[in-house]
Amino acid sequence: MTGSDAAAWVQAVGSVAAIVAAGLLPLWHERCKRKAQRQEWLSNLTALAFEVRDMAMAVAKAYRSEDSLYATRMGDDADEYAPLLEALGSFPSYALTDRLHLIALLHLRRFASHGDQLWRAAVSHGEALSHNWEAKEQAGDLAEETVAFVEGVAAFK
């Protein structure tokens, strides 16, 4: 093989390598973008989980409070948690590729819906809260379950 033949082979191999790299670079970039998007979705899911936890604790406090009008003083807005329910409802479940993350979203929606119902009852009934033992128990259970669940969600990576 002559020097010009070797140079031609080096040029050919270099050209093929450049073509392959040019084809793989967009794929690698897209993969990195998807991974960053997935991390953002998980971060958003975790933030929503903490909001649901805070809601559950506020609901439980409203039902536990010695001051039966606590709930109405805290916001006297029955729609206080409507934005949270909307955010959970519009969260793109298709973006959650892991089965456990999807299950977490469904549980958070359930916790938030139940908490919203209890909150609306607390706001609308005010003084009657002190005698509603079943609702007090539900509010306490909701808070306990939600806090435990959110600790697990916060561990998502």
Along the chain, the helix and strand elements come as HHHHH
- For the record, the count of structural domains works out to 1
Q: How many beta-strand segments?
A: 0
Number of helices: 5
Keywords: Membrane, Transmembrane, Transmembrane helix
Protein name: DUF4760 domain-containing protein
Transmembrane segments: 6-28
Organism: Luteibacter sahnii
Tell me what the structure shows:
The chain is an all-alpha fold and 157 residues long. The protein has five helices and no strands. The protein has one domain. The protein has helices at residues 3-64, 70-74, 82-90, 99-125, 133-154. It comes from Luteibacter sahnii.
Features:
5 helices, 157 residues, mainly alpha
SSE map:
Layout: H1 3-64, H2 70-74, H3 82-90, H4 99-125, H5 133-154
